[in-house]
Queue: 4 jobs
Job 1
Amino acid sequence: MTRKRLDAFYLLLLGCAAFLLFGVVMALASPSSMLDFKVIYYGARSAAHHGDPYARGEILSRYIADGGTLPGGAVQSRIARDVLSMCIYPPTALLFMVPLSFLNYGPAHILWLALLLMSFIVASIMAWDLAADFDPMLAAVLGAVLAANNVIAVGVGNSAVLVVAFCVIPVWCFVRKRFIWAGVLLLAVAIGTKPHDAIWVWLVLLLAGGTLRRRALQSVVVLAAFAVPAVLWIGSIAPHWRHELGANVSALGAPGGLSDPSLAAKGERAVSMVISLQAVFSAFIDNPHLYNLLSYLVCAPLFILWAWTTLRSGRSAHKLWLSFAALMPIAMLPIYHRPYDAKLLLLAVPAAVIFFRYGGRVGKAAFWLNFAAIVLTADLPWMGLQLLVNRIHPASSGVAAHIWTAVWVYPVPLALLAAGTLNLWIYREHCSGRMLCDRASESRPAAPDEGFGQAKFETPVSPQYR
């Protein structure tokens, strides 16, 4: 390593150390400690003992029978009871959890916590390595911010931490051409655990073509090898599991449910808010059918344009990073996601660094929009805001209440939409040959005052994949 790259690596490790420290503190001190882990752990434990993990109340009953208790506060107790009453994980996720389910809860949750922490640290380092070819220090700043602000999900033991890591690590394996089959396996596990997160990364790889498409298809084969026995196993225990799973997912997203994006949601705003576009539209239209439809109508053209651009473009490392940057923010918007799912923005770090270093004025604007999306989905700023709210007690009616609602609800999905839209435009322009040219021999550095589309830019040559 050069001295600059080594200094950047130390900065990244500082962010990872903060993630490790705050994550452990949250796991030990939070009243909702390991709550999400308990769902998948006791769901797998129930299935292993021939119980129906998707039956309403089955997991809660098994948890209480195992000596578990609910938090003392009325709100926290209600949330814990609702979360533990419904399993929303697919059968493959329960199958992956079976080895831990044979352990008592004590050692099982310690192993799970260690797996979450170490996998995300490795993923953060790999994301930095992919972006460090362009600017190691700037990549370290973004990686450190993302890592240090992923503590809430660790505290509740949410599998999103693992899924994000198991999406980033395979991309590194495939691009660097190392540990290929480990990457294929991890991507299959990610899709089988949280498909609404991992499927977007798989889609980028599939449409990228070449070797990456083969890796994506191989991961589907591996996933099928897990999915078939998982479905047969759960089907023999709970013949109506599909209907029960659908009912559980619907109940969580229904008006008043924990995943309800509207202002009437029982779930927390801020730290654990729903960040899909439904949260914005629901403030104006209190009708799930309408605000869901509006979210789909906004996102569908962006997805179609992204897919069309990807299929018609050639293959290079730069286009891969721009493709990730275009899709990852938008992927959070049409369906249910929370801030910890948005840590998939780790895969947008290489493109964000490229924007800042080689993109002129529009590129820097794209960088700051992506940085805003990262900060607005970060845990620590929202935790600070939550403490402030508890002290100042904002107005509950009038103009001040509407302004506060706008500050509280709108920034995250709107920042993701703005960043994704601009990233997509840059991606499309680049694939048309009008900016960020990969071929250094045909490019020249941009002058400081040039616009993004007024020149071709010299960028380092990253490994090509064919």
Job 2
Amino acid sequence: MSSYGWTYLSRDALRRAERQLLGTGDGVRDEIGFLILHQRYADYFFPGTSVLHTRLRYALFVPWIYLTLYEEGAAASARDGVQKSEISLAGRLNQTSRDDGVIGGRSYPDPTSQPPSVSYWGALGTWGILREQDGRWPSRAYVHGILQSKHRRAIDDDGQAMARTELPFVALPPRPPAWPGSGPLDFKLLPREATFLHARFSDLRPARSPKQLSLLARLAAGAPVEADRCWEPGLIDLAEEDGPKLRRAGYAASLAAVGRAVYAAQVETLREEEDHQPTGRRHRDHLPIVLARHGAIAGRVNLGALTEDTGSLPPEVVEVIEQTLAWLKAGAKSPMALRDAYENAECKRKTQRARLSRLFGTPRRIEWIADEHALAEPLHYRWHQVSRLLHDLWAAA
């Protein structure tokens, strides 16, 4: 697992945030473990991206905030200075782009739990906007330390001023004329900014295959495309040697939809039959729809090829995949035939919070509200977020 996801200090925070967003914000929950497939395929095709990303210009807003604070001198707390600047940025963007990708726009003037500097820090490293130091990307805490010490008196033993540590960003495009002050800002990239970001994307390569370009790099270099899913035929062609892998990612996306539909149907069944609670059929009625749309595609998953694409998977997740594929092949009858495998996987992930657990599941199922559990859908591999970033780039071309 160490070779996937975010690197350095912000890695865990970003992973937690992505799990939270996928668990509540987008209605996708990961009781069984399908998010592992999502993360690994998404990291491969779209390095540096996150479901927390909204607009591409944040990749410049964040370092510009740090540069401005560096030049002005940090407040009593660098962290507080960054937070104040991010709140101000949200207010300025709200003037032109309310509810259109403004991070913290709804909570303004209060701070947001996932500010831009957290959401985009890993991207700044992956996209080459942060300079590596000793083979690693500097953390936010390290950069905050530079801000804290920037204007402190630093004298050596001979009474001479000591050199100041510079911020670890590459040479950035100039800040726009509207940057100072409190007037409106927007997400429209200036040509020089688009040129800079295009150069960042043009050589992005998957960590697992550093000899070939990522799909994100190929997309950034080409003409604008419109696609609802990242594994549509035109994108498979664009991916060239990664085309078969992208097609297999589509199969895995459908398998996840089936698995999530099975899980929800199992919870409804147990809640009604074992817990004797009045329970609707929202998810049980949705399962045949998911099977009609995705069952045949999901059945194309080859476990060997899947693990070759993603790397090793936890044994309980492998068991779920194997059992689900066998169930589909046998005609996909009762979802309860898969309970043992699904219960084991959920218990491994959630222990006493597992709804399918024979030991602890009853109270978790009783408090379960079917309408708050989104209907099962395929994995998306951050395609909606990536598309938005690319459209910002293409619009400035």
Job 3
Amino acid sequence: MEEPSTPGFRRMLQDTLSIDDYLLPVDVEYPEFSRRICRLLRELYQKGKKIIQIEPFLENLLDIHDFFSQGHSPGELKPESIQYQVYLAEREATKALINYYETVMSAPFEVTVKAIIGFARYDAARFRLRDNLRARALARHIKKYTSVFIEAGTIHYSLLQMLRQRLPKQDQVKPVFIPHKALRALGKKGHLYGPGDRLTLTYIFHPNIKSTPLQELLAARSLIYTKLIEKEELSADCKTFPHILNELACIRTANLLNWSDCDRLFTLIRRVKTANARQIVEDYLIRFKKIPRKELNAF
């Protein structure tokens, strides 16, 4: 599992701790999704599957928080330690994210785009370290078993490469994009890498690359995409994969926009709620891009 060791996890799997009690102290973004995952994990555990939580970066980060809460300072972390590497990566990414938050509500469009690019670079460095630490830990576990399924978000694509480098050549590592299977089940085509993900992946694999017009456009589109994407959990009808359809619609909409479109729209939607932002973008595409309403992607 792509998560740090959690108190009560084993008891939850063994059904000696209720799922709701297990999730109560855990900070989960999508509660219903988390409950369903826990039920699925229980079923797998009952069938004899061994389920392990492996996420060294986050485990080290939690340890650092505990270390600081006890009155210690960053200067007390050993420079050669993994914890210090995690601390630096998290500090720089967080600093860049705060700069973006301070910029996005009032700064000119071009300045905000630069802030997004700055954050993407530091976020990519954090992902590289996170994937590297996880690949090391996974490689040690994988050799114990004949077949292993590794949970990983699509942004962790470098993990695939790192695992292949660390495992024997006879071990096959095959990516399975579950969201794409969901799209095919719905008769849809497309990918689920938003403009911000594409930008971050560029810097994950090419950390020293200079900014290009394409990267600047991806950053500009990500400003619009972030305002369009659904923030709340959609669980009324999970069989239709509402989050995946929403992502696909927002990605397709963002891909219709050029730099000037993003500049105009950002001024209009930066301070409005998601529903209003969607309406403004839809009206803009009809008026200025001459796209018929019936051809627009439903959010």
Job 4
Amino acid sequence: MKDLFIRQAQVINPEKIELADIHIENGQLYLVQDATDIGDEQKKPEHYQPEQVIDAQGCYVSAGLFDLQVNGSPQCNLWADPTPGQFAQLCHVLLRAGVTAFLPTLITDDLEHLKKNISFLESMGATGQLSHTLKKEAGKFNATELIVMPGIHLEGPFLSPEKPGVHPKQLLQPFHMPLLKELARPSVKLMTLAPELKNGKQAIEYLRQQAIVASLGHSNATFDEAMEAFGWGISMVTHILNALPPIHQRHPGAVVAGLLAKDIYCCVICDGLHVDPNMVKLLVETKGVDRVILVTDMASVGTTGGELVGASITLSEAVRNIVKWGIATFPEAIKMATSNPACAMHLDHCLGQIKPGRRADLVVWDKQTLSIKHVIANGELVF
């Protein structure tokens, strides 16, 4: 693992943008050196001689992006029977797009196949044991070791038959506590569900006890049902404005509940197809940038033939889109793709910001084009 020095970067953190030099040793951020204020505890080692130097003048540097909803890519379909090689290709695609952390996502499926795929993802490193993942030594370039998988996102099977989307309607399940407990493994950290289903309160309270984030999605909940579920412990809305009842002047529904509930995070797909940019603008102006999360819902087939079957976008493209549409500044868009998802998943102590002592997961962006020039994951220069 080579030591890196990133010179004269415009470092983006949630609270400020500052000119800084970044020193990386053994995969960790050793120093973020403010050009005007260098604390004693941040001084570089006496004989620091980095093996690689990146001149970041004219560039932004952000924390690595964090995608909460990744179903696969053309190289790897997580809903089928992926191989370790295909999964490594998926991780490589994500890293090239600036994503250094993600939640592999499984949708409603035959229960035995679903459990098989959960076990497969666990074998690939999505164990839910983040502290172990962060301590890994990358060694030679290995995408599945460089990328962080804090856990698995189960989108279903406890969803509304009224709003199944691509989920096989015949395989949707009611809340059955033995089944919920069987699926709620330590590796599962996010579960999308329809809270209006019978026993929804009991299920949500159980997930909260297991430190699993519950998210409302593929739901036909009314406004009152959604607001009540937020009180039970739901803290997020999965791909808001998709697979939910549309806004109606006399029946506001779960979408309006998500918009008005101040502490709820709302995830949104910004490919320009799933949600019209003007609706994204309404979302951001209503919720504020602190409670909006950019996700991709990236899938092996993506959006084809006018049908929405996941998306074909990467998270870095979503960042550029929301800036191009004039909805958010670049630092705001970065917040929606880094620190916001980290906060929503209770991982802001270790992901989503550039701070000394943390794992070195960074993206270097050209300030003019917002294209990615370099990605660093676990201290390794991916490109």
